[in-house]
């Protein structure tokens, strides 16, 4: 019995697959071929790391043959162990494939076989019956328990031949039991006890059976059976309850006096699993916990309690124990795989836009209700503003467009929390590569998140920022000092300032006409900083070749050009015995005498490095008396 239901639920779930098998199959028995049934590539099962996990269990019950795609039995599958008395037993599995990620739901319907025989609660059933008891009296015999279901459970009872009793088979919902009927009155003087064998037979093939001995002791009269206060008792018990936790107390009363009215309690019908979890006080009727109660294994138990008086009259009550779930299971992350088991990396295209789906964290919780509600959170990221995760879906998406400045290697630490109190969580690492193909990645293993490397990188960044800040501060200070030095003369001579007259030694003979001054001259120089004009005043002298004493030169660059002519037509004008002035960028004033100077109007342009009135030869003479330097 095999069928598959194809669904397109989401990007990671492609379909459901159901197989039917019998319980107790041998190890290696083939269940089906998942490669064929799901249309998977046979050659890629191993490379895609195909695996099958059972929901709520870490035990590997089934496996995959990577060579042929067969799904086979890897461990003993007992229907009674997994499903108890449920009529339908379906085991849920997850088939997970990687690269790309695929998740398929597998259902394994386990069919019952007749592998259990009927078992009575006790090896001997003791009955004490007064000899005065009338014919037709009925005595209930506790039903035999068969762990199988359907036709394989108890179908009939057979009573050994005897002179006093016959057996009636009664049916109640879901089970059959026997009633011992007194067909002939007992005679204590004739026979004070009887031992009769009762056999329970199931309907399987071949049939299985179990027996019990009914020991009848003949006594005097007892005409009242115990009566429970309730026909059905209900109790609620949290899972993981400590040992000896009280579950419920049942009570029955007997109208008889003395020993006939003394009531004792015992389990009349109890499964093998329930026997290890609960015990009953025979005198008080209190049920307590004696084993580990796990909601995920079983959420409800039904037990039957018999109240019996001193001479064997009895009645039965049913107790239903509902197990409540507590948050005792942490979320189990199915994808990505736990660190160390395998290395999985997701590729993020460089052209991915904001809101693009990158990957998905898949997790389950074995608890139920709100304890199994999961939420997903990014607790650490290489770039906190680049990715976001769906709170309830676990889908990892980009928050913005991928840019060239984003690091190729992106690590995300994701926490999965449930909604229980207190909340339990699990974490996983998601490794992402911003690349269009693996050829761009030098070594994938370098992407593993290293907390120490991250701290070292932080320290290096802090050191680099500190050094850079110090260097920039130093440069700014140097530039500021130089700027202040350049500004200082401008501040000192802002406006027309009279520079003291320069002194030149007197009476130098003009022997060869090279132009030394024959007598002393005083020169008044006026400078207006930040202006295109300069004001020079030469005092009067007896020399005819010098400027008149009352003539003052206040010329702009264009006026100088007009005075000496166009620079292109007449680049030089010879002037003998005239002092040359040179103002350098450092604001030194050179007074040179007796040299031939070259006057160029284009040298007076504002903002230049220097302004020349005379040529270099004039200002570089080295003989004594050639000039005097006055620092402005």
From TrEMBL:
GO terms for molecular function: calcium ion binding. Gene3D superfamilies: Cadherins. PANTHER family: CADHERIN-87A (PTHR24028), PCDH2G3 PROTEIN-RELATED (PTHR24028:SF114). It comes from Fundulus heteroclitus. The lineage of its organism: Eukaryota, Metazoa, Chordata, Craniata, Vertebrata. The chain crosses the membrane at residues 459-481. Keywords: Calcium, Cell adhesion, Cell membrane, Glycoprotein, Membrane, Repeat, Signal, Transmembrane, Transmembrane helix. GO terms for biological process: anatomical structure morphogenesis; homophilic cell adhesion via plasma membrane adhesion molecules. This is Cadherin domain-containing protein. InterPro entries: Cadherin-like_dom (IPR002126), Cadherin-like_sf (IPR015919), Cadherin_C (IPR032455), Cadherin_CS (IPR020894), Cadherin_N (IPR013164), Protocadherin/Cadherin-CA (IPR050174).
